[in-house]
Design goal:
InterPro entries: IPNS-like_FE2OG_OXY, IPNS-like_sf, Iron_ascorbate_oxido_reductase, Oxoglu/Fe-dep_dioxygenase_dom. It comes from Lodderomyces elongisporus (strain ATCC 11503 / CBS 2605 / JCM 1781 / NBRC 1676 / NRRL YB-4239) (Yeast). With 265 residues, the chain is an alpha+beta fold. The protein has a domain at 9-193: Jelly Rolls. The chain is 30% helix and 20% strand. It contains nine helices and eleven strands. The strands form three sheets. It has a four-stranded antiparallel beta sheet. Strand 9 and strand 10 form a beta hairpin. The longest helix has 27 residues, at 15-41. It is globular, with a radius of gyration of 19 Å.
Length: 265
């Protein structure tokens, strides 16, 4: 974090502590999550962190990274509530590897169940972190891990008057990390049939992150009559994959059922 950046005064006052917090998440907490992923995928401990997220001092382009965000939601008046139909941030998945969100007691964050389509509130664990899987880890595992579809909605009536503050860390793989399961060489994924689909182009994380990020909030993607955005095809992949847990769901099936935008990249 550069002190010459135009941070608010309160951030400047605690810049060292904020940087240390996010550094700890990346170098300690993320490493533990990656080690658990290694166990699940039957890989040597440390493989995923070292290959995709490790930091090399002085080599920003060749290092894993991330972005920190402080989000403060004020109580919304009834007229504004009606305009957004009670949804403060519509359903989406994150482009990165993992997302860490501080747990807090106001119920507002919801996760979509891939199998039922039902939205469920995320409960509160004091001093805990919510960990969402992002697109990058879904692609790296060939779809075995599934990127979390999540949204932010009105809290229950008895919590509606409170402000909601969360600290978020979006963990991102190295920019040149290839987003498919080939590099993992996981015997478990191979046994279960999770391999690179033929329609997937070979791309790195930087390409995916850049293209998905520019779609966020675009009216041509998000102006729909349902809670789901229109689907966009990027590098042989759908930018959001709300139905991927359905049996026999594929890109070919999606093209039959949904409007899919194809954008030159």
């Amino acid at each position: 974090m550069k002190k010459e950046n135009n941070y608010p005064d309160i951030v400047k006052e605690y810049l060292t502590e904020i940087a240390e917090y996010y550094r700890f998440l990346h170098q300690d907490t993320l490493r533990k999550i990656c080690n658990l992923s290694d166990i699940v995928l039957e890989l040597p401990e440390g493989f995923i962190y070292d290959k995709f997220y490790s930091v090399t001092e002085g080599e920003l382009e060749n290092s894993g990274g991330g972005a920190g965000r402080f989000m403060l939601y004020d109580a919304m008046d009834s007229e504004d509530q009606k305009k957004v139909d009670g949804t403060w941030l519509r359903g989406h998945s994150d482009s990165g590897g993992f997302t860490f969100i501080t747990s807090q007691p106001i119920l507002s964050l919801q996760i979509r169940d891939y199998y039922t389509g039902k939205w469920n509130f995320v409960g509160h664990t004091p001093n805990g972190l919510i960990v969402n899987i992002g697109d990058a880890m879904e692609f790296i595992t060939g779809g075995f891990f599934k990127s979390s579809i999540h949204r932010v909605v009105n809290p229950p009536d008895d919590q509606a008057g409170f402000r909601r503050l969360v600290l978020i860390y979006f963990c991102k793989p190295k920019g040149d990390a290839i987003l498919d399961p080939t590099a993992l060489n996981s015997s478990k994924l191979q046994r279960l049939g999770y391999v690179k689909p033929k329609e997937w182009e070979i791309i790195d994380f930087k390409a995916w992150n850049n293209e998905k990020s520019r779609l966020f909030g675009k009216s041509k993607v998000n102006d729909t009559q349902s809670e789901e955005p229109k689907l966009v095809l990027l590098y042989g992949r759908l930018h959001e994959r709300w139905h991927q847990a359905e049996s026999n769901f594929s890109l070919e099936e999606a093209e039959k059922r949904f409007e899919i935008l194809k954008i030159d990249v």
